[in-house]
Amino acid sequence: MLFMDVHNHLPEGATAGDVAEAHAADVRTQDQYGVKYLNYWVDDHAGKVFCLVEAPDAEAAHRVHREAHGLVADEIYPVTQG
Amino acid sequence: MLFMDVHNHLPEGATAGDVAEAHAADVRTQDQYGVKYLNYWVDDHAGKVFCLVEAPDAEAAHRVHREAHGLVADEIYPVTQG
């Protein structure tokens, strides 16, 4: 299933570079859970991140974020791509 | 510039097909404003839509939605793609 997750508040001072490192950690962690983080978009001024992810369910996607870097998304939606 | 816009409340009963029609109307409208709606993701159960859009500024992106179908996004963020 395809999901879009939304992080509403990056940690104070986090940069796009920090998000890139977190994404790399997701990629190292995801295979064991059948998860694939496909792409992400960052607004570091607003502290917002959108992650597009293929996962068996929302909890599996959250688990990868939790184990990889601890920054679990605030919201997650099952989506179809237009 | 690249933006992610977020629609938080699709009109009651709107389906993924309705969103596809709205997107087609965006595509017919966008050129005159230098805007390009690139992709979108829909959760029709939650009434949520995420649109990825190239635009000279946020207002130009909103203008296309407003003229094409009237459904202006609730939020819009300048983003960098990871």
Short description:
Chain A is an alpha+beta fold. Chain A is 30% helix and 33% strand.
Description of the molecule:
Chains A, B: InterPro entries: SCO4226, SCO4226-like. Chains A, B: It comes from Saccharothrix mutabilis subsp. mutabilis. Chains A, B: This is Gualylate cyclase protein. 2 copies of one chain form a homodimer. With 82 residues, chain A is of the alpha+beta class. Helices cover 30% and strands 33% of the residues of chain A. Chain A has one domain (2-78): Alpha-Beta Plaits (2-Layer Sandwich). In chain A, a hairpin with a 4-residue loop joins strand 2 (36-43) and strand 3. In chain A, helix 1 crosses helix 2. The longest helix of chain A has 14 residues, at 16-29. Chain A is globular, with a radius of gyration of 12 Å. Chain A starts with a strand and ends with a strand. Chains A and B meet through strand 1, helix 1, strand 2, strand 3 and strand 5 of A and strand 1, helix 1, strand 2, strand 3 and strand 5 of B.
List strands and helices in order, with pairings.
Two copies of one chain form a homodimer.
Chain A: E1 2-7, H1 16-29, E2 36-43, E3 48-54, H2 58-68, E4 75-78, E5 80-81
InterPro entries (chains A, B): SCO4226, SCO4226-like
Pfam family, one (chains A, B): SCO4226-like
Protein name (chains A, B): Gualylate cyclase protein
